[in-house]
Amino acid sequence: MDLPFVVTTLTRRGLLSPGRPIRVASQLNALRRWGWSLAGELRQAAARDPGRTAVIDEHGAELTYQELLDRAERMARALRTGFGVQAGDRIGVLCRNHHGLIETVVAATLLGVDAVLVNTGLSAAQLATVAEEQRLRLLAHDDEFAERVVGLPADLPRLDEHAREELVAVALPGELRPPERDGRIIVLTSGTTGAPKGARRPTPNGFGPLVSIIDRIPLHTRDRVMIAAPIFHTWGFAALQVCFALRATIVLHRRFDPAATLAALVTHRCDALFAVPVMVQRLMEVPPPDPRPPLKVVAVSGSALPGGLAPRFMDVYGDVLYNLYGSTEVSWASIAGPADLRAAPTTSGRPPHGTRLRILDADGAPVPDGQVGRIFVGNEMLFEGYTSGATRPSLDGLLDTGDLGRLTADGLLFVDGRADDMIVSGGENVFPSEVENLLAQLPQVREAAVIGVPDPEYGQRLAAFLALHPGETLDPEAVREYVRHYLARFSVPRDVVFVKYLPRNATGKVLTRELRRYYG
C-alpha cells in the first residue's frame, strides 16, 4: 500500500496528531516489539493513552487502557504458570461481549497462543466437536454456559467467570516477553448449512488493513464506539481491532436489545455503532429516542441488508449507514457508503483501497458488466486456511468467496447470494435475495426468507417464509400476485409460509436448514 495514502488517511482520522514525545516513543516501541497483534494494539493504546477509558460494560464497569492491559497480562501469567499454557496451544473462548472476553483473547496473544472464538449459539454437541477438532488446551466460558460445557472431556480445564477473576487477582508478578510465534485468532465460520469450520485469521503486518477500512468508514481516534456485533464473529472482532488502533472507548452489552442499545448510544454519546443488519432492522422496530444518539457511523456487515432498510434507517438517524461486504475467509471485499445506499439500497458498494475484486465465470474468465458470476477477492487479510488443512479455491491471488454477484458499469457490486443457495426451478436460475428484497418491502412483513424445496415436476420450487409485524395479516395468493407483478413467473414462490420469526444464528444469518425442516 502506498505511503502517501497511508499518511493522508492516518492524518485525516487523527492518528498522527501530536502527543507527548515520551508517550509517542513508547507507543511506537510497543508496535515494534509486539507487532500488530491484538496484544500489540492494546499495548500501543495503553502507552499513548493509559488513562483513557477503554471499555464500558453494560452495568457501568469501566476500565482504562492501562487497567485493561494489566488485567490481560495477569491472566496471561496465570495461564502460563497455573495451567502450563504455552505458545502454539489453543484455548477456546465462549463468551458474550464484555471485558472478560477481551482480556482472555489478549492474554492468549501475549503468550503466542491461538484463541478460538466460539460461537455462543453452538449446541452442546457442536461444542464438543469444536473442542475435539481444535484440540483445545483450555476453555474459558461465561457462567451462563455452565450446563452446555458439562459434556466436554473431564481433562479439559474450564474457566468460568469467577475462576477468571480469581486468576487475575492472584497472578504472580513477572515480565512478559514477545512470544516466538504470533498467537492466531481462529474464527468459526457461521455454519448456517453445516458444522462450523475454524478459519485462521492472519496478523496484520502494518497500517494497511486499518487504513483500508477507515478511509471509507469515517472513524476517528478517541471515538466512542458501541460494538453490538458479537466479538466472536469476524465483524465484531474487526471492530475491536479498529477500536484498539484508534484508542477508542468501547461500549459493550452482553446481549442485544434494541431499546437498551439506543439508550446506551445516547447515555455514552457514542459516535459509532458496529452491528449486523438484523440489529439495525430491530432498531427500527422501537421508537427512536429523543434526543437521537449523536451517531456519525453505523457500520454493518455479516449478512445482506434487507431491501429498503437502508433508506428507512437513514431517514430516521441520518446518512450514517455503511455496509461492508466480506467473509471470514476474505475479511472485506467492498464497502457501501450512505450515498451508495441512497442510490441503490441493496448494493454492497465498491472495493476499498488496496482490494482487488473480480467477477469470473466457471472457467475463470471475467464476465461483462451486469452479468452474474463468482466473486473473487484479493487483499492483505485473506485467511490462512481452515484449521483442518483445507482452503478455498483461488485464482491469481484472488480467493473465491463462494458468492455470486455482478458489477455495474460504474463499479458498484451487487451480491446475489451463495452459489449453493441458487434455486434452479424448471431450468431457470432464481436468486433468493431478489425475491426476499421484494417481499421485505411489503409494509406488513417484518422479515422474509426464500429457499428452494424439492418439486417432482420442476426439480425445485420456491418457498417463502414470512414473519409479519404484530397484528398484521397477509393472504398467500396476494403475496404471489405481488411478486408476479414485479418479477418473472419462475420467481413467484409457490409456497408461502407464515412464521412467528425466522431462525437465525448469533450473527443474524437465517438458518436455512431449520426452514427446510418444514418439509421433513
Automatic annotation (TrEMBL):
Gene3D superfamilies: 3.30.300.30, N-terminal domain of ligase-like (3.40.50.12780). The keyword Nucleotide-binding does not apply. SUPFAM superfamilies: Acetyl-CoA synthetase-like (SSF56801). Residues 43-386 form the AMP-dependent synthetase/ligase domain. Keywords: Ligase. One of its GO terms (molecular function) is medium-chain fatty acid-CoA ligase activity. GO terms for biological process: fatty acid metabolic process. Transmembrane segments: none annotated. CDD domains: AFD_class_I. Residues 434-509 form the AMP-binding enzyme C-terminal domain. Pfam families: AMP-binding (PF00501), AMP-binding_C (PF13193). PANTHER family: ACYL-COA SYNTHETASE, MEDIUM-CHAIN ACYL-COA LIGASE ACSF2, MITOCHONDRIAL. Belongs to the ATP-dependent AMP-binding enzyme family. This is Acyl-CoA synthetase.
